[in-house]
Amino acid sequence: MLNRPKTKTNVDIYGQQYSIIGTESTSHVRVVASIVDEKMREISSKNPSLDINKLAVLTAVNIVHEYIKLKEDYEKLEKQISEKD
After folding, report:
1. Is 74 exposed, middle or buried (0-12, 13-18, 19+ CB in 10 A)?
2. Pair 10, 17: CB distance under 8 Å
3. How far apart are alpha carbons 25 and 32 in whole angstroms?
C-alpha cells in the first residue's frame, strides 16, 4: 500500500469551519463533511431545541446506525454470493 501524503482540507459543517488533516483526497473529505452537515441539518430541523453538543452526538448515532445497517446488508449479500459458488 502506498503512503499517501497528508493533506489539509477546510470544510464547513453546520456553520462551523474545520480543518481536517488526513491521507484521503480533498474531494473525499468534502463529501464526508457534506454528509455530516446534511444529517445535522436534518436532525436539527426535526428537533430545533437541541444544543450543538446533543445535535452532534445524535448525528453520530444516526450515521453509525446507518453504517451498521449497510454493513449487515453487505455481509448478507456476501454470504448469498458465497453460497452460490
Report:
1. exposed
2. yes
3. 11
Q: Which three cell numbers stand for residue 24?
A: 484521503
User: For the chain, what is the total number of helices (H) and then of strands (E)?
Assistant: 2, 2
Return the C-alpha cell found at 68: 451498521
- Do 9 and 19 contact (CB within 8 A), yes or no? yes
Tell me, letter by letter, the H, E, C secondary structure of 45-65: HHCCCCCHHHHHHHHHHHHHH
* 1 has a pLDDT exceeding 80: no
Residue whose grid cell is 463529501: 31
25-58 residue pLDDT tens: 999 999 999 999 999 999 999 999 999 999 999 9
